[in-house]
Design a protein that fits this description.
Layout: H1 5-14, E1 21-25, H2 29-39, E2 44-49, H3 57-73, E3 79-82, H4 87-94, H5 105-124, E4 129-132, H6 142-156, E5 159-160, H7 170-180, H8 192-202
Parallel strand pairs: 1-2, 1-4, 2-3, 4-5
Helix pairs in contact: 2-3, 2-7, 4-5, 5-6
């Protein structure tokens, strides 16, 4: 039987005392919208924008601008940590996996790379929890993401907030908010390999 990560998150929230500090890894503005809306009442949220996989750099900056835009338009009082465009880190973990299909081993390593950076910074800056917006997408494996989060939680001694943000129509809500606030919506996951795959699919 599959683990219900949304239920685990709801149980965690029910048992919270005060508003713990949460470092939330954000992949883009659209995906972040419904996730922040859901977590904001219960956590003192800080966003980490760390996505060295995104290609090209102009796309990275466009998604970062969209993230800042949605936070401003939804009137969230949230800080953003942005540590620059570190594309070399993604290139290093993707080496030898260039021909993997979307959702394969390259993606798993990419999830780990971004979540590990989040865990490290959460520990360094004394956050209570860390998690990611990635599970809001129906194309992302929430079980894989949560297993990585669990491993990193144990490795760095920082609590991971289990989640599956696509549940309770989280993905639908993110699309509604994107339309409401006229947000830029990307047409591929992020890396140049996913861009190539998306273009090949469009040209069929």
């Amino acid at each position: 039987m599959k683990t219900n990560y949304n239920q685990i998150m709801e149980e965690t929230i029910t048992n919270l005392k005060g508003k713990p500090k949460l470092l939330l890894h954000a992949c883009c503005g659209v995906c972040s919208s419904s996730v922040i809306e859901r977590l904001y009442p219960f956590f003192d949220v800080t966003i980490l924008y760390y996505n060295p996989n995104i290609y090209p750099e102009e796309e990275y900056l466009k998604r970062f601008d969209t993230l800042k835009e949605i936070i401003l338009k939804m009137k969230f009082k949230i800080k953003i940590l942005e540590i620059g465009y570190e594309s070399k880190e993604f290139k290093s973990i993707a080496k030898g996996l260039e021909n993997e299909k979307e959702g394969g081993e390259r993606c798993t390593k990419c999830f780990y790379l971004r979540l590990e950076k989040t865990a490290k910074l959460a520990k360094k800056h004394n956050f209570d929890y860390f998690t990611t917006t990635l599970s809001v997408s129906p194309y992302k494996n929430s079980e894989k993401l949560n297993k990585i989060g669990e491993v990193l939680s144990e490795k760095y001694g920082i609590k991971y907030l289990y989640s599956d943000f696509k549940k309770k129509e989280g993905y639908k809500r993110s699309n509604e908010l994107a339309a409401k606030y006229n947000l830029y919506r990307q047409k591929y996951c992020g890396c140049k390999y996913s861009l190539k795959e998306a273009l090949e699919y469009q040209n069929k």
